[in-house]
Design a protein that fits this description.
This protein is α+β, with helices and mostly antiparallel strands. Helix content is about 50%, strand content about 5%. It folds into two domains: about 20-165, no CATH class; about 180-360, no CATH class. The strands form two sheets. The chain has a four-stranded mixed β-sheet with strand order 1-4-2-3. A two-stranded antiparallel ribbon has the order 5-6. The two termini are about 25 Å apart.
């Protein structure tokens, strides 16, 4: 089993590794980059977050800003790999693309403008007079661009520092943007597995990459549980980094363990396996409890086939007493509900559930 201690756990890098340039574009150039695939904005291509989160009024006001020559806030782009990706400014660039590009399937018309509502209400880009189209296309855009050769850990830190305004990237979106290729594709593979979708009752959304966070958590605890400190974000980041070097055989082993664990959890507790069940057996919460997901999936994955068969022979009693554990064991309750990312909480819930399970096998 690999050790997380072999992956440097303290974020250290030479400040000279930070390599960012200021670059000037026009709106028309940026739309052209998107159309040619040089700049990626589409969620289906695994960009860091869901793009369609602005309503028509907010989108229209952005376009109006270009029409009345108001400067846009600076953008941040990751130009270290092709295609480029957006660190900050995704909603703005997606809105501009939707309004201007003939290739967009989500075009919109201007609504609820503040200054130009008399002249241009309900106008699409092609309805605007030519001088206004040119004004929009020639509007300047300033962007800080991360240069090629910037190390992943530096990019990760840049993403975290920059995303402080607007719709912030969450941890998994940042990890997915920085650790492209094998790590991003592998977590996607796990998140799309039918066994995971079934046992989570189809309640873990793909938006904002929540499903991939669950998958990454499973991988992290499979590989590095004993090395966990108290920083879940760094724990998951280093796991993504490790996946670059993991062999195909190791990734295959993790995938099989994941699928097997999801199936076992479903057979034992059904589609609410990862919810905190109240005394009458009803699930609490809109989505599966992440702490329970980590704990139950890890513990069942460690069982031999004959041990799980023994557990299944006591399925009814197990579920009844498991619900009691969830509600009446004070230490376990706190470990899955309060300060769940602390090392003490993690160790407590893993060990309590492990001891509980072994009473039945």
């Amino acid at each position: 089993m690999p050790s997380l201690r072999k992956v440097e756990y303290i974020l250290q890098y030479d400040p000279k590794d930070i390599d960012i340039r200021l670059q000037h574009f026009t709106v028309g150039e940026m739309v052209n980059y998107i159309e040619k695939g040089k700049l990626e904005i589409f969620e289906e291509n695994d960009l860091q977050r869901f793009t369609g989160l602005w309503d028509e009024r907010r989108k229209s006001l952005l376009i109006e800003s270009l029409m009345i020559r108001l400067p846009l806030p600076v953008f941040y782009l990751d130009g270290s790999e092709e295609p480029w990706r957006i660190v900050d400014g995704l909603q703005r660039l997606n809105t501009i693309y939707q309004f201007i590009s003939k290739k967009s399937n989500e075009s919109f018309k201007l609504k609820q403008l503040e200054y130009l509502k008399e002249e241009y209400h309900d106008f699409g880009f092609n309805n605007l007079p030519l001088f206004m189209q040119r004004r929009i296309l020639e509007a300047p855009i300033e962007a800080f661009v991360i240069n090629p050769g910037t190390p992943p850990e530096v990019k990760h830190n840049i993403f975290q520092r920059i995303n402080t305004l607007g719709l912030r990237l969450n941890g998994q979106e940042i990890r997915n943007s920085v650790y492209r290729g094998t790590p991003a594709q592998f977590t996607k593979k796990l998140a799309e597995d039918p066994s995971f979708i079934r046992v989570t009752n189809k309640k873990v959304t793909v938006k904002r990459m929540l499903d991939r966070e669950y998958a990454t958590r499973f991988i992290a605890f499979q590989l590095f549980k004993d090395d966990y400190t108290s920083d879940i974000d760094e724990f998951l980041r280093y796991t993504m980094q490790y996946l670059y070097d993991a062999s195909e055989g190791e990734r295959s082993r993790i995938y099989k363990a994941f699928k097997r664990s999801m199936d076992m959890c479903f057979e034992l507790l059904g589609s609410y396996a990862f919810y905190r069940l109240v005394p009458n057996g009803e699930p609490k919460g809109r989505i599966p409890n992440k702490a329970l997901f980590d704990t139950l999936s890890w513990n069942l994955s460690k069982l031999e086939n004959n041990e799980f068969e023994n557990l299944m022979t006591n399925k009814r009693r197990f579920k009844r007493e498991y619900i009691t554990l969830l509600n009446e064991n004070v230490n376990f309750f706190k470990a899955i509900n309060d300060t769940t990312s602390s090392r003490i909480a993690v160790l407590n819930r893993f060990s309590i559930l492990e001891e509980f399970i072994h009473k039945y096998i």
